[in-house]
Structures are given as structure tokens and as C-alpha cells.
Amino acid sequence: MDQLWHLISTGVLKPGDRLPSERELCKTFGVGRTSVREALKPLITMGILEGRAGSGTYIAAETGQFQKPLEWGLLLDLEGRDDLVETRHMLETNAAHWAAMRAKPENLVAIEATIHGMAEHLNNPAQFQAFDATFHFEIARATQNRILYRLINVIRGQIQTWIAERLTLSPDRAKGLARTSLSQHQAIFTAIKTGNAAAAWSAMDHHIQTATRDLRRPGKPPKS
Hints:
The chain has 224 residues and is mainly α. It folds into two domains: 2-59, Orthogonal Bundle (Arc Repressor Mutant, subunit A), CATH 1.10.10.10; 66-216, Four Helix Bundle (Hemerythrin (Met), subunit A) (Up-down Bundle). The chain is built from ten helices and two strands, in the order H-H-H-E-E-H-H-H-H-H-H-H. The protein has helices at 2-9, 22-29, 33-45, 67-76, 78-102, 105-120, 125-142, 146-169, 174-193, 197-216; strands at 49-52, 56-59. The protein has a two-stranded antiparallel ribbon. The longest helix is centred in the middle third of the chain and has 25 residues, at 78-102. The chain is elongated.
């Protein structure tokens, strides 16, 4: 199990990746099938791996088995949401700062691709949110800090639950929110691309403060 966990924790195997077959794992680790099956069991129990009928075993999302309990609690607990927003601010502003300092060319390409995706899906809330989430994941990845990346994966999962809930309640606001969000994401990316850590922190701070206010404001859409 330690060898398999090492492949997951170091990013060799990423969330969504299909695990090699039992035969391939036996060959890779030099063990028998019984040992492989015993190693997989606790990882499945912990939510690190997930079995899909007729398809195989896959690396689960970063949040694992703790995702749903967290979502349910946050949907019912406004105070918990306040803590969530504060935690998000701490993590993501600093992620933007360090991404500006450490991003590699391939990180910049990945971040910019998510902005193009958002721009192409202003009228499709579900797709826009997916690219929005990926934008933040890619910034976290660009910090070159695996622990920070995992923490932001958990936090973003909860933020997306809240965003989806608010946009479902007020679908007429979705496009206005998307336009505002896109503009702010572009500002964050520009700061990261130019290596301006202070500007990246400030742009992310502005984005989080604005997004939080817009999501809590009932009724009218934000100004264009």
C-alpha cells in the first residue's frame, strides 16, 4: 500500500486516473494478486480509490470520502460558510502570490486555457463553473506545493456547492455574475503571468470579496 500511496501522493497517479490492472500492479511492485487486493481495500475504504462497475478502479477526487459530509454541513450552517470563505481567502490569495513567483510555462498555458473556456461558456452556468473551478485548481498547482493544492481542492469543492445553489435560486443572475467573474479571473492571470506576486494577491482578494458579496446578495444581478 505504501508504494501505491507514494504514486498517488507524488502526483504520478492523479484524480480521475484509471489504476493499472492487477496483473500490471503485481509486475510493478513484485508481489502477488492477494497482496495487491489487500493493499487496495483500505485505500477504497478511505475514499482514495473508487471502483466503477465494468470499468476498473480509479483514483478518487482529492476530497475523498469526506466530501459529502462537508457539503451537507455547509449547506445547513451559515456560520460554517463564513469560516469557509475566510479559509478560502487565506489559501487562495496566497496561492495566487506563490503562483506568480513559481509558475512554470506549462502552468501558465493551463491557467489561460481555463479563461478561454469561461469566455466561451458565459451562457452555460454548469460549464462556466467547471472552468472556473479548474482555474483555481491550476493556480494551486502552479504554486508547486502539493499540500496547498490538496487543501484548495477540498475548499473549492465546498465553494462550488454554494455557488451552484445560489445560481439555481437566481438563474437570471448567472450571466451577470459570470461576466464579472471572467473579468476578475483575467486580472488574476495577468498578474501571475507577469510575475507580480503582490498584484496577484490583490486581484485574488478582490475576486473573493466580490464573489462572496454577490453570492450573498438576494435578488438583483450585479452591475455589468
